[in-house]
Amino acid sequence: MRKEASARFVAPSLLLMCLVTVYPVFYVLWLSLHRKHLTFGIEKFLGVENYIALAGDARFWNALKNTAYFTATSVSLELALGLGIALLMNRAFKLKGLMRAVVLIPWAVPTVVSARMWEWLYNTDFGILNYLLGTKVNWLGSTFWAMNAAVFMDVWKTTPFVAIILMAGLQTIPGELYQAARVDGAGPWAVFKNITLPLLKPVILVVLIFRTLDAFRVFDAIYVLTGGGPAQSTETLSIYAYKVLFQTLQFGYGSAISVMVFLLVGAISVFYIRLLSRGMR
Amino acid sequence: MKRAFFLLLCILVSAYSCKKTETPAPEKTTVVFKHGKIAGDPALFQELLDEFERQNPDIDLRDEALPASTDEQHQFYVINLEGKGPEFDVLSMDVIWVPEFARAGWLRDLSHLVPEPQREEFFPGPMQAVTYREKLWAVPWYIDAGLLYYRKDLLEKHGFEPPRTWAELISISKAITAKEPDTYGFIWQGKQYEGLVCNVLEYMWSNRGNVLREGRPVLASPENIEALGFMRDLIVRHKVTPELVTTAIEEPTRHIFGNGNAVFLRNWPYAWNIFEKEGSAIKGKVGVSVLPAFEGGEHAATLGGWQLGINRYSRNPEAAERLVRFLTSPSAQKTLALTIGYKPTRKSLYEDRELRAEQPFIAGLYDVFMHARPRPVSPYYMMMTQAMQPEFSAAISGMKTPEEALRDAQKELKRIMETAE
Asked: How high is the pLDDT of residue B17?
């Protein structure tokens, strides 16, 4: 009886979830098996042909490579820097509250705004970066620098988020543990390695899940900064999918790319969740 | 709580009844006009639309602006037209969409609106852009095209005439930059985006090259290879163009030239008003001309601008036609030019005394617009440009040789045309 009642309570939200997530996901899957092009009035069932085409699509592999590079470098840098900042901010010092608020500013700026801002900071002629370094590097114009410039921008923007979450994690570690360690004569590195890091592990994993998934789907920041150029060197999977879906309106092929992003993101999540549940035990 | 609810109900009811009384008398026909956000004062544009309603008391005109982003406008039209929606009657289209929409069967044939002899009154470029399979699918509303801005004062000071060939542009740039500190020679837009295609086409056309010939891609021709290679050479061999153009869109280049740091700039007509504004560093020092050409080639400018078409599923095509006729008439085009600076598509207006007195700049644009050419008039253009942009970018930034880039783009164009059918 009670079970039935609870099912009834859950039903509306379940239905809503089905409508807004399950249905679109399956629709995109279905679309990805078609050649569908609105302007040409084409709608044809292809089976897995789109996916076979993807396997041989150099632009897809290039986008995948760019996405992987962006994700790996930005997330690892953000984690390292964020951890350092969290440890610093966790100490008692004056203006601690103010400091925490100030650190969050980059995170609070809308991505599109900060990307436009960075575009000007990186400008060869007027950019403050070249001014400070006394150089004339064309940051966004070289295939090497453009992607790293995007990573740098992301690190600037997202490190505060990582730092704040990690700091919250640090505060859950009981102070007695540190006292006990000190009584036992442990140095700062030993304390960090044997107490802070293991106890922070679940929080670190949560941060990693959030950040990896976000970085893997990166769109707005890079789209505004470089539009995917020069010569495709910063085109990520999401940008490629956007161009195919919304600029050339090839819904079938674009959906196939989106499905690949979905599957990869799914795989990453499963990997992390496994890691997390093992850590909990 | 109860009272608040009652109040709300009252408001809703009165709002509803208000709306009801306001609906136009049934004999009025409604025409819905969709267009991108008006650049400039919307009130001035509204005045023109009010004038139309005064002249056509039987029509109730509803003017509905779309977002400023052209991608979003394109999506809106495609999704609604594909669904055969009659929700709007007149639509304003970017120059590259007309063949795409016409092929899909979403536009009404407007050949009768501008009969053969009257077509001469418009610039040839936009006329070509709205013609697909020998029929007219839209009427050119206002025009835009790439042009060369030059520093009149610097050219005079060093005794030069505006360049007519690319070789002249290089030698003038070299001579002037050698004597003027902190000045670049020639800047343009080379970021990977639609504007890059516009820039590259101007070099290809002025070297007798093209993208399509009789509907087939001919991108890897020797003329095109030479043209694209020349753009890279401007940066690395002749050193008259700074490396920074490979990431530049219109605005950064407009800033550099506007600050007085370049001799030549390729941009669109919009920049003129900004250069001539009170307090501008180069006010009164700027001249315009058609872009240079290669030896033996013809001057060329990439055509931009917007065209008015009628939705195939419109319920009031006759009233819609009246709006298109009105907005593309000489008098409306003149008003638009005077109020918000939209450049007329009708040639005769460039002789108009009042307009020339008000905007002396417009006289110099006639030659530019006469040379304006549409980007490949093809229903596949939106896909073609996606294939060309990265390859052009690779050549300009030196990642590929022009031959490699164009051969790869050519392959991609062929594939698009084969699979889209």
From this structure: 47
User: Domain holding A180: CATH number?
Assistant: 1.10.3720.10
| Residue given tokens 């039987």 in the structure block | B58
Task: State yes or no: ipTM above 0.95.
Answer: no
The closest alpha carbon to A265, from A221, A231, A214, A230, belongs to: A214
Q: Does A155 touch chain B (CB under 8 A)?
A: no
Tell whether B11 is covered by a domain: no
Domain that holds residue A223: 72-248
8 Å CB contact between A83 and A166: yes
Mean pLDDT of B36-50: 88
Residues B249, B251, B257: CA angle, nearest 5 degrees: 110
What is the full DSSP assignment across A228-273? T-STTTT--HHHHHHIIIIIS-BHHHHHHHHHHHHHHHHHHHHHHH
pLDDT at residue A236, rounded to an integer: 96
Q: DSSP alpha helices (H): ranges in A184-234?
A: 188-191, 197-216, 220-225
* Beta carbons of A229 and B192 less than 8 Å apart: yes
Query: Each residue of B198-224: pLDDT tens digit?
Result: 999 999 999 999 999 988 999 999 999
Residues of A in contact with B399 (CB under 8 A): 143, 230-231, 233
Q: What is the C-alpha to C-alpha distance for residues B392 and B239, in angstroms, rounded to an integer?
A: 19
The total of structural domains in chain B comes to 2
Residue B39 predicted with pLDDT over 80: no
B352 and B399 fall within a common domain: no
- Measured between CB atoms, does A143 come within 8 Å of chain B? yes
Average pLDDT over residues A103-107: 90
Phi/psi region, residue B23 (left: phi>0; alpha: psi -120 to 50; beta: rest), is beta
User: Number of folded domains in chain A?
Assistant: 1
Structural domain ending residue among the three candidates B352, B373, B394: B373
First to last CA, chain A: 35
Query: First vs last Cα of chain B: how many Å apart?
Result: 63
Task: Using CB atoms, pick whichever of B75, B103, B383 lies closest to residue A246.
Answer: B75
| Structural domain harbouring B409 | 145-302+377-420
The residue type of B362 is I
